[in-house]
Specification:
Elements (H helix, E strand, L loop, with lengths): L11 E4 L5 E5 L1 H10 L3 E6 L6 E5 L1 H18 L5 E6 L5 H16 L3 E7 L8 H15 L3 E10 L2 E8 L25
Parallel strand pairs: 1-4, 5-6
Antiparallel strand pairs: 1-2, 3-4, 6-8, 7-8
Length: 188
């Protein structure tokens, strides 16, 4: 961002500290006005024709910009990927515990990587692993959506689940007044 003497355009559009346009002028004239007011000339839109410059306190501008960026970073949600590992020989209670863990992670807004490692001769029965991962996908239901369907990578079967999109609460539509009834029946 260019300021004061670093502005190299022949003509610039100048806006003063109150937001009012002073018009199009040469940079040295605008800089003279800024110096008289004890402020800086800051190029805010260099790609415009002519470039737009504002008369303002540059230090205060940088502070406000940094403050707004910090506030934006504070509001953003960092999505992490949690991993839950299964085995082909998982018992029912262990399966339920890990499934509940997956649902909790999804409700917290994190992605979940469900992985299942085949050992030794278990590779001959890959369908057992696919059954476990597909059962997990069915059991989590509306808590999450499948981002990557189960796939093999070496001796490991992976599936990635993402949290379900939360729909904003819909406001009920105001009731409509009943339509006036018209007499269509004829007497005979």
């Amino acid at each position: 961002m260019r300021t004061n003497e670093r502005i190299r355009a022949r003509e610039i559009r100048v806006i003063d500290e109150n937001g009012e346009q002073l018009g199009i002028m040469q940079p040295f004239e605008a800089l003279k006005i800024a110096r008289e007011r004890g402020l800086d000339l800051v190029e805010v839109s260099p790609n415009a024709v002519p470039p737009v410059c504002r008369i303002q306190d540059y230090g205060k501008y940088l502070y406000e910009k940094d403050k707004s960026e910090r506030a934006a970073r504070k509001k953003q949600k960092v999505i992490t990927v949690k991993e839950v590992k299964f085995s082909v020989t998982v018992d029912e209670h262990d399966y339920q515990t890990k499934k509940n863990q997956v649902v909790r992670f999804l409700n917290d807004g994190d992605k979940v990587k469900a992985s299942l490692r085949f050992k030794g001769r278990q590779m001959a029965h890959r369908e057992l692993g696919y059954n476990i991962i597909n059962r997990l996908i069915q059991d989590i239901g509306d808590a999450g959506t499948v981002e990557f369907m189960p796939r093999m990578e070496g001796t490991t079967l992976h599936a990635v689940l993402a949290p379900a999109k939360k729909e904003p609460a819909k406001k009920p539509a105001p009731p409509r007044p009943p339509a006036p009834q018209t007499a269509t029946a004829t007497q005979t």
